[in-house]
Amino acid sequence: MSAPQIVVHRDKELMAQAAAARLITKIVDAQAARGSASVVLTGGRNGNGLLAALAEAPARDAVDWSRLDLWWGDERFLPEGDPERNVTQARAALLDSVPLDPARVHVMPPAGDRYGNDADAAAEAYAAELAAAARPEDHGPVPSFDVLLLGVGPDTHVASLFPELPGVRETERTVVGVHGAPKPPPTRVSLTLPAIRAAREVWLLAAGEDKANAVAMALSGAGEVQAPASGAYGSRRTLWLLDRAAAAQLPRSLYPPASP
Ligand SMILES: O=C1O[C@H](COP(=O)(O)O)[C@@H](O)[C@H](O)[C@H]1O
């Protein structure tokens, strides 16, 4: 477990650009050290903002996109191509404009097709895909992702782990079907906290005043069942990337001066 580090940026645009720059550096370093890199993507406004900023960053060409594994932290269980699916939005923001290896883009299964309405079966299939990608040195059923991104919801949810729902209490499975989510759509597929914690680095993104209460709650010792974001941490680093509005309810002693 790594203690949270907090970085506060002026606004959500700067936060997205700075996070994109950080991510490029992290991917380039991992590729130099180990030959490839792995990143877990998030949906939501801040996750897509980061991807859009990455698409605009000239340094994106420093990444070898063919040696990058992409996974998802959660997915809205909807048919392939639905505009509300996280992967559809990620493709529009970045993925369609970079030369990824399609075999390394590990999309969570859609509704319809093979799994029909069975989000639990889709979750099992994704858990099997993760397990197949894990190497002995990962010491567990999921790869040690280089960076796992999480948007923080206004209710403190991360991935599709919502306060008090069964998914956030899961201690064995790495991926679960989520039913009755308070944010539409109600049916989703999500990594669990144990899978999230397998990542070397977990970066939590929150911008805007509607996130201020969630950020303060998660960083002030709330339990993970009530505030799932507080249970999300990486084995080496846990980084909270905020804008000033989202940090507004945090005690000033918790973080250094804001960047310009
Ligand atoms: O529905 C979802 O919401 C969260 C947070 O989204 P935001 O728009 O409030 O930033 C996101 O992290 C998750 O991946 C997504 O499925």
Automatic annotation (TrEMBL):
As recorded in UniProt, its EC number(s) are: 3.1.1.31
The residues covered by the Glucosamine/galactosamine-6-phosphate isomerase domain are 11-240
Q: Which InterPro entries match?
A: 6-phosphogluconolactonase_DevB, 6PGL, Glc/Gal-6P_isomerase, NagB/RpiA_transferase-like
Entry's Pfam families?
A: Glucosamine_iso (PF01182)
Reaction it catalyzes? 6-phospho-D-glucono-1,5-lactone + H2O = 6-phospho-D-gluconate + H(+)
Q: What SUPFAM superfamilies has UniProt attached to this entry? A: NagB/RpiA/CoA transferase-like
Alphabetized, the UniProt keywords read: Hydrolase
Its pathway is: Carbohydrate degradation; pentose phosphate pathway; D-ribulose 5-phosphate from D-glucose 6-phosphate (oxidative stage): step 2/3
**Listed PANTHER family:** 6-PHOSPHOGLUCONOLACTONASE
Role of this protein: Hydrolysis of 6-phosphogluconolactone to 6-phosphogluconate.
Describe the family membership recorded for this protein in Swiss-Prot or TrEMBL.
Belongs to the glucosamine/galactosamine-6-phosphate isomerase family. 6-phosphogluconolactonase subfamily.
This protein is called: 6-phosphogluconolactonase
Q: What is the species listed in this Swiss-Prot or TrEMBL entry?
A: Streptomyces blastmyceticus
